[in-house]
Each structure stands twice: as C-alpha cells, then as structure tokens.
Design brief:
Pfam families: TH1. This is TH1 protein. Belongs to the NELF-D family. Its main location: nucleus. It is built from 33 helices and no strands. The protein is mainly alpha-helical. Among the domains are: 81 residues, no CATH class; 100 residues. The radius of gyration is 33 Å and the shape is flat. 25% of the residues are buried.
Length: 569
C-alpha cells in the first residue's frame, strides 16, 4: 500500500506542474497511470485545471502585439527560448534520458527538425562549446555533420573531439578542396587548418591521412594542404613535432633527414649540410627527389645563393653544389626518366644569373646583367630566384634612392610584370613582393617623389589585376587604403574601372564598394572618376546575374549620392 501511495504522489506532482495539460503524452504517461493506480478522476481534473496558466497563449498574445508595432516577434521568441534553454540545460539529465538504451535506438523525431533550422543548429554549437563531454550534444553534432553542414562543424573548437565527427569533417574538407582554384582554396584553408592543428593528435591524424591520399590520388592539392598544415603548426610553436613527423612520414635516409632538419631549423644551408645532400643526390642511386622538393627548403637554398647577406657566406664551389641541388629538386619529373642534360641546363642558367646579379647588375638598367636575367626569367626557378633578388634590392639597398625617376618605369618593376605574365602560378609571390615593398618606409625621399614611387608600386598591383589576379589585390587595397594617401586609392580605382568590363561578379562589386566608401567625398572633385563610378554601378544594377543585398545597395546609394552632392557644392 505504501508503494502505491508513493506512485500516486509522483503522478500528482506530474499533473501539478505548470501547464501540465499541454505537455506531450501527459494523458498516456501520467493521467492514465494515475487512474490505473486508483487515483480519483475529479482530483486529476482539479490538478490539471489548477496547474494551467496558459503560458503559450500569453506568448502568442505578446507576439501578436509585438508584430503589430513592427517588432520581429519570431526572432524575439526564438532568442528567449534559446536563452532559457542555455540557462537550464542539464547535460547529465539529457544524457541519462536521450542516450539510454531504448532511446538511443530511435533518436527523437524533433532532432532532425531542429537540425534543418540554422538558429537551432547554432544553439547546439553554443551548448557543445559549453558542455563538450555531453554525449547527446556530440551525437547531435554528428547528425548535423552527416546532414551536409560539415562546413559549420569545422568552425567548432570541439570539432575534433570525437573521431566520427572529425572523420566526417576531414572527408568533406579534403574532398572539396580538390576542384578549387587558388583563391577558393585560400578561402577554405583557415577552417581546415584550425581543425587539423588544434592538437598534436589531430595534426598527426590529418598528416597521415594526407600522406595516404598523396600516394593514391591526384596529389598536388593534398601536398599543398600538407605544407600549409606544417606552416601553421610551426607558427604555433610545434616546430620539433613537425620535424619528427615529417621525418617519419617521408621515410628519408638518416643522412638526408638530419641535413634537412638542420637546414629547416636554422633557416640556412651550412657547408656541411650542402656537402651531405650533394654527395647523395649526385650519386648513381640518389634518394627520392621528394625529400628535397619542398618549397621552404628550396626557398632557403635560393636565398643562400641569390640574396646578399643571407647569413651563410659560401665559396664558389659550394654555391655550385647548392645550385645543383636546386636544379635537381625542380627539374626531376616523376612521369619520365631523369634527363641529366636538363639539370645541367638549369644549373648553367642559375649559375650565370648568380654571377650576373652579383658582379654585373650595375646602374639603373642593370647594365651587363640583362641578358642573363632575360634567359633565367624563362624558367620558373630562375624567376623565383630573381623575385628574391628584386625584393632585397628594392628594400635593403639604395637602388630607388639612387636611380628612381618619376617619368620612367623602373626596370625592377618591369621585371615583376614580366614574371607575373610568364608564370601565372608565381603571381601570389609577385604580389607578396609588391606588398612588402609598398609597405616599406623608404627614407631620404622628398614627399612628392615618395608619393610617385608608391604610385609606381600601385601600378604593379594594377598589372596583376590586368592579368586577372584581381580579388587578392582588391582585398589588400581595402585593408591598407587608410594607411596611404587618398589620391593613390583614387588612382587605383580609376585604372581598375577603366580596365573592367561587364558582366561583373558580385565579389568584384562588393570589394570595389568597400574601397570606395572611405573616399566617397573625393569622387565628386574628380569628374572623370565620378562618372566612371556611376557608370560602373549602373551596369552592375542592370546585371540580372548579380543579386545585390540591401546593405550593399545602401552603400552604393551612399557613394553615388554623396559624390554627386560634393560635385554640386
């Protein structure tokens, strides 16, 4: 009898909860069982009636009133429910109920419903950041990842906590980068890098998976991603771990791995390391070329040979051996037999370029070196060496202070244009050199001459736009225009709009708008620029393939109306 009374009291408590009559399954789970245990029907009715306060109805009335005065009641209600849910969420009770044996076999129907709603997915993400060990939340995240929302999951700090979720993210991420171009790859990279480099074990897992993909698939995207992960891990202070794993995965001979580790650690090639690698790679049975076909390693070797004061002073015979290693690493082709003649040609070209830049590059026009420069610029590794030398000459020597004339395009600038034209894959490196030089605080210049030099560097950016390396340049101008004179931005905008022809992409219109916003008032002072801007926006608005958002349209209207008003004044 005592047990029966206890059950009746439990059912009474259930029936006495606020708005119990509105709870799902209240009749089957509480009322029917209460009556079956001998509870009085009138008592049950009284309990349900007294516990009713009508919270949902009151919410509907408040929402209706809010809507009538222009408030987004749906958004307000969602945020209120979200806040209450976060305040009252109990991960232990949640796991005890939803992850029990009987409930785990059949997930609640409402879970898939809320997964399709961005607002509630975001709520789950916020909860799992707060309760990363909640089994139900991790199960929900896995369901989200399997529902084609892996891009969202990749941004979570806890994305790599569970192997199923992590596997799902890596599978989607690695598959998606294969068809991407360079710009799209750069956009996707930060999220992938953050997930893969979160901890040592996630980095290890990702690199081993990439190693397998490189062996069995079209490996270029995966090689690049692997290098980006290495770079990110080193920047976060994991240099030693990266070296150990790299040595293990490459399966390089001990002598090779030791020499490469020393070069990477010291960021310079010492005579001892050069001799070890040269003897191995000039032997009849050289190690695999992949061990030295590494961008960071090749870049370090190029600096040692072509950049003065790079840290290591080498005798001519050691420079020859280092040039051989550079030529071997960049000439070996996995799809055909090694041609020693090709390596010799690259060696001869690089040696000739090194001597010319060191001994013959005199005066404004580099008299005596141009023949060797023109020859070297035809091969990619030659142009990369030249890029390093141009950056050093532009920043660390008085070349521009001595030879810059406002009426002529500097020879170094013409060489940058030529490299960008001949080698499309090197445009990001040309872009980086231009950015470094444009940001450099040149000394000993009269203000007007310095402005002209900066304008000449802006013209190099414009040439990159001309060869279709557009969006990175626009992003850079948007980020740095506040640090440069407005006249340089106006010059850039004028030239870009002169080159651009419809149809435009939405990204182009958005970036140009962000560049134009800070100089809106200046546009009205220069008639031809103002006309070009107005025509540009008229053409963009007429393009049915571009969907202009309300915020973008507002900015466009501000630019157009402000420039017209300024002109009228």
């Amino acid at each position: 009898m005592e047990l029966r009374i206890q059950k009746l009291e439990e059912y009474k408590k259930t029936l006495s909860q606020k708005d119990a009559i509105l709870e799902q399954n209240i009749y089957s789970d509480a009322l029917a069982k209460y009556l079956a245990e001998g509870g009085a029907p009138m008592d049950a009715v009284t309990l349900l009636a007294e516990s009713y306060i009508g919270a949902p109805s009151m919410c509907n009335v408040v929402a209706s009133s809010a809507t009538s005065i222009g408030v987004d009641s749906q958004k307000v209600m969602r945020e209120a429910i979200k806040q209450k849910l976060k305040e009252r969420f109990d991960p232990q009770r949640c796991d005890d109920y939803f992850m029990s044996a009987e409930n785990q076999q059949q997930p609640p129907e409402w879970l898939d419903v809320i997964i399709r709603d961005e607002h509630w997915r975001q709520t789950i993400y916020e909860l799992i950041e707060q309760y990363p060990r909640c089994a139900f939340l991790n199960y929900a995240v896995l369901r989200i990842a399997n529902s084609d929302y892996s891009n969202e999951i990749a941004k979570l700090k806890t994305a790599s906590t569970y192997i199923q979720v992590y596997n799902s993210i890596l599978t989607e991420s690695f598959s998606s980068i294969v068809p991407l171009d360079d710009l799209e790859f750069e956009d996707r990279l930060p999220d992938i890098v953050r997930v893969c480099c979160e901890r040592e074990e996630t980095y290890l897992y990702a690199q081993m998976l990439l190693q397998k993909l490189c062996e069995n698939e079209d490996n270029m995207p995966f090689i690049r991603l692997s290098k980006e992960l290495e770079k990110a891990a080193i920047q976060s202070g994991q240099h030693g771990f990266v070296d150990i794993l790299k040595t293990y995965l490459s399966a390089a001979p001990l002598q090779v791995s030791s020499a490469l580790k020393a070069i990477r650690s010291n960021q310079q090639a010492t005579p001892g390391d050069i001799m070890v690698l040269y003897k191995l790679y000039s032997s009849n049975e050289p190690p695999h070329v992949n061990h030295i076909r590494d961008f960071g390693l090749i870049n370090t070797m190029l600096k040692t040979v072509f950049v003065p004061n790079s840290g290591t002073v080498l005798k001519p015979e050691l420079k020859e051996k280092l040039i051989y290693l550079i030529a071997y690493a960049t000439s070996k082709n996995d799809t055909k037999a090694m041609e020693k003649q090709e390596i010799k040609q690259v060696c001869d070209t690089l040696t000739e370029l090194q001597i010319a830049l060191n001994d013959k590059a005199k005066g404004e026009n580099l008299t005596g070196a141009m023949k060797s420069i023109v020859k070297a610029i035809n091969i990619p590794i030659g142009s990369m060496a030249l890029l390093l030398w141009i950056e050093h000459t532009s920043i660390h020597t008085p070349y521009f202070e001595t030879y810059f004339r406002s009426s002529e395009v500097p020879v170094l600038h013409l060489l940058l244009d030529e490299i960008a034209y001949r080698h499309p894959l090197q445009r990001p490196f040309v872009f980086q050199v231009i950015k470094n030089c444009l940001r450099h605080p040149y000394q000993n210049f009269a203000p007007e001459i310095l402005m002209t030099l900066q304008k000449a560097w802006i013209d190099r950016l414009l040439y990159l736009v001309q060869v279709h390396y557009t969006i990175p340049v626009l992003v850079f101008m948007k980020q740095t225009e506040r640090d440069m004179d407005d006249s340089l931005t106006v010059h850039f905008v004028q030239k870009v709009l002169r080159m651009a022809q419809p149809p435009y992409t939405l990204a182009f219109v958005e970036h140009m708008t962000q560049i134009l916003l800070p100089i809106t008032e200046m546009l009205g002072l220069i008639k031809n620029v103002q006309t070009a801007v107005l025509n540009f926006y008229d053409e963009a608005k007429d393009d049915r393939n571009i969907v202009i958002s309300d915020s973008l349209a507002k900015n466009i209207d501000h630019i157009c109306t402000s420039s017209v008003k300024r002109k009228q004044k």
